[in-house]
Amino acid sequence: IGDRAKQTPKGEWIMGGDWDETKWTPAKLPTKELIDPVTPETPVFVNRYDGHMSLANSVALQLAGVTAKTPGPLGGVIVRDAQGNPTGALKDAAQDLVNKVIPPLTHEQRVKAVKRALAHAASLGVTSVQNMDPDYEDIAVYSELLQRGELTTRIYAAPLITQVDDQTKIGIRHAFGGPFLRIGALKAFADGSLGSATAYFFQPFEDQPNNHGILSDEMHPVSLMRDRMMKADAAGLQLCTHAIGDQAISMILDIYSEITKSHGAADRRFRIEHAQHMAAKDFDRFAQLHVIASVQPYHAIDDGRWAEARIGHDRASRTYAFRTFLNHGMRLALGTDWDVAALNPMLTVYAAVTRATLDGKNPNGWFPEQKLTVPETIEAYTMGSAYAEFQENEKGSITAGKLADMVLLSDDIFSIPPEKIRDVKVLKTIVGGKIVWDAAEQK
Amino acid sequence: IGDRAKQTPKGEWIMGGDWDETKWTPAKLPTKELIDPVTPETPVFVNRYDGHMSLANSVALQLAGVTAKTPGPLGGVIVRDAQGNPTGALKDAAQDLVNKVIPPLTHEQRVKAVKRALAHAASLGVTSVQNMDPDYEDIAVYSELLQRGELTTRIYAAPLITQVDDQTKIGIRHAFGGPFLRIGALKAFADGSLGSATAYFFQPFEDQPNNHGILSDEMHPVSLMRDRMMKADAAGLQLCTHAIGDQAISMILDIYSEITKSHGAADRRFRIEHAQHMAAKDFDRFAQLHVIASVQPYHAIDDGRWAEARIGHDRASRTYAFRTFLNHGMRLALGTDWDVAALNPMLTVYAAVTRATLDGKNPNGWFPEQKLTVPETIEAYTMGSAYAEFQENEKGSITAGKLADMVLLSDDIFSIPPEKIRDVKVLKTIVGGKIVWDAAEQK
Predict the structure, then answer these.
(1) Helix, strand, coil % (nearest 5) of chain B?
(2) Closest residue of A to B236, CA-based?
(3) Could you read off the pLDDT of B132-179 as tens digits, one per residue?
(4) Domain closes at, from A378, A396, A414
(5) How many domains does chain A have?
(6) What is the domain extent for residue A355?
(7) Which among A88, A128, A368, A382 is placed 20 to 30 Å from A54, CA to CA?
(8) In CATH, what number is assigned to the domain containing residue B298?
């Protein structure tokens, strides 16, 4: 950060980061004192890799007006030292205190970023993405590239539910659009993350006995979330709700249940994003409500390193519980959660099939009874994810009449040893019958 | 109206109408006194067939609070008697004074109306429509029917330009959507109509020497229209502007020219709807700006009965000047302007090819030098209209790879005498390869 500050023009911010304190020794949250000496004039706001916490330096806190007197916002935490002074670490909604003073990206910066992302996706064999919580300015870039014929990845965009009125107003419904770009969904947040200790549980964390997480700002009050979701559902928009802690999941299932009772049966395909830590009592009604569990298996082999220390054995046994989901007849949709995790789908398959944590301590799988087979994983990752965006008749399998989105791999993932899957390479990526990436053409 | 009032429940309105005073003897505007005696308790608001004038009875005027003291709004006219009292006839923006007190349609009423319209279109061989100025609630009905698989006509919807912010905000561009429903266009109004004497001309009407028409409320001030159009174009939305009088057309070309200068060259497909009475000086720049003339030939054989009396021979010679448009290399898109005119496309073809006015007084054509051939008419009505909605690669011709939208007619319109074309029947209507109407199955 010090090196970067020397090259950063006055007035510009240092951002990005993707830090993970669990990989440091000691594994403690960073404070602004770590970076203040090397950034005396440059505002810094670098995020934890999960996006649920960021570290600001003193310049950034000053620009944002965050002091010892600033109250913690609903749905967020200003981490403080013993004297009550902000340490620089801001959790969930507290990040907005700084975000709102950061200059927005220019259109040109967005175009550049989207083009890099498209090239990255093509190189990894990703032919469709579900884009959670885009800015409308991002959708404008997608539209522009669509019209120039430059979209090489299909996008289903789900703006934040706080903006529900914008889509309901003009009369569009779920999955509105064409094969390369659709809107009509909404992303909501019920709580935070396990790593930032902001996922909302019924019981406290094992390592933080006075903390059982926090509900997001969108859930204050819960009736606000319910009203927005009712409005969205009445208009035919699809709901995709981030819920990680068992109580957050339970509360969203409560709302989904109320919507179904209030509006009657319909093919609405409610989603819960992550569905990470399930209460034992909730599997059945999750299935009965036909909610889709939109899960990212890579998190299991990453968080699996330390999750049990935070929530104990019992809750860990219902964490990333993919096998239990299938046993209850629930539909799975697989994804990566990029850029929280890597975009490489081979890592997703590897993680779902092996559950071998990144620290090498669980070579036979962390809670191995939750492992999926390769065919189950591929089915959930293709047809399951297509179903989760209402496109199971258009994609999700190599079938005559469907979109010709295909990937040629270096190995047969159905026959090689599972631990080799993470090393499989993409040789060609084909979208709509066109080769959009070819390994043979790379240096 | 008196009969209808007897069956109308208390509190409900009598609407519709589509009256045309030119067909009455004497050909004078109606007044509320004609209907007040038979509608003592029922509000009535019946529109002239062109939609640019409506007649209110006294109950309706009272509900709307329109009195002798009510000032005429910008872009509208309250027709008054010698004492200054409203006669009940309200032109253009003045109609909004009453419209705003009429209860809106319910969702069920809209669904019923849209279904009837779809069936009507299918029966006439109409496979695609461009829907100018829909309510968002109408688009919501289209979306609902789309998801139920019940749309049998493809729709490109262009909400009113006063709502420009709603579409620019979410990042969509022109023709956004799928093969059955697209949005991303805006309908604007520059002026009124010839029949209501509200089309905006450089010189006064021959029969109303103190009136040269009025600009619409959207043009007060013109800078407001320019700002909205600049904003729409910057966001990539398509502009479809109603302009009938020669000065209104000229002013819109001015704005289109400014947009092109300001934003640079692009495939934006500006449209002028009607382009009815052209100034001689404007044909060239109309072509240079690549503006599409979106015209409705049936109006020529209807208005042709009386247009010369209103605007004189010289201006009439540049009225519905389809041949002159083609000579200048301009692109035409043909349509019906339903429900201002009938939806039957055979009447459009008949009108463009014969220009034989409905009163039988011009059997060889009104300004016959402006007649089109059948092939020219069909090209403009299919490929031209497809181009005007950015879909020339998807439809507009029967070509492998395009949408299978086709009509089977009772006769070969390319070989029968032109005057027989109006009697040609549709035997089958095929949309997306599915028969959506079959004459053989009707009683």
Answers:
(1) 40, 20, 45
(2) A144
(3) 999 999 999 999 999 999 999 999 999 999 999 999 999 999 999 999
(4) A396
(5) 2
(6) 112-396
(7) A128
(8) 3.20.20.140
CB pairs under 8 A between A and B: 78
| Partner-chain contact A143 B236, CB within 8 Å | yes
Q: Measured between alpha carbons, how far is B158 from B408 in angstroms, rounded to an integer?
A: 29
DSSP-assigned states of every residue in B166-192: HHHHHT--TTEEETTEEE-EEEEE-B-
pLDDT (tens digit per residue) in A381-398: 999 999 999 999 999 999
Say yes or no: A92 and A183 in one domain: no
Residues of B in contact with A147 (CB under 8 A): 173-174, 236
Residue B437, in any domain of the structure? no
Judge if B87 and B118 occupy the same domain.
no
Structure confidence by residue, pLDDT tens digits, B176-219: 999 999 999 999 999 999 999 999 999 999 999 999 999 999 99
C-beta of residue A405 within 8 angstroms of C-beta of residue A434: no
Tens digits of per-residue pLDDT, B377-416?
999 999 999 999 999 999 999 999 999 999 999 999 999 9
Q: Does A183 touch chain B (CB under 8 A)?
A: yes
The average pLDDT across A180-206 equals 97
ipTM of the complex: 0.90
Q: Give the three-state DSSP class for B12.
A: coil
pLDDT in tens, A253-268: 999 999 999 999 999 9
B176 touches chain A (CB under 8 A): yes
Question: How many other β-carbons are positioned within 10 Å of the β-carbon of residue A93?
Answer: 24
Does residue B90 sit in the same domain as residue B125?
Answer: no
Cross-chain residue pair A236–B143, CB shorter than 8 Å: yes
Task: Assess whether A94 and A134 both reside in one domain.
Answer: no
Residue of chain A nearest B268, judged by CA positions: A147
A128 Cβ under 8 Å from any chain B Cβ: no
* Residue whose pair of structure tokens reads 């299909």 in the numeric block: A154
Residues 4-23 in A contacting B (C-alpha not used; CB under 8 Å): none
HEC sequence for B86-118: EEEEEEEHHHHHHHCCCCCCCHHHHHHHHHHHH
- Is there a single domain that holds both residue B118 and residue B95? no
Instruction: Tell whether B87 and B180 lie within a shared domain.
Output: no
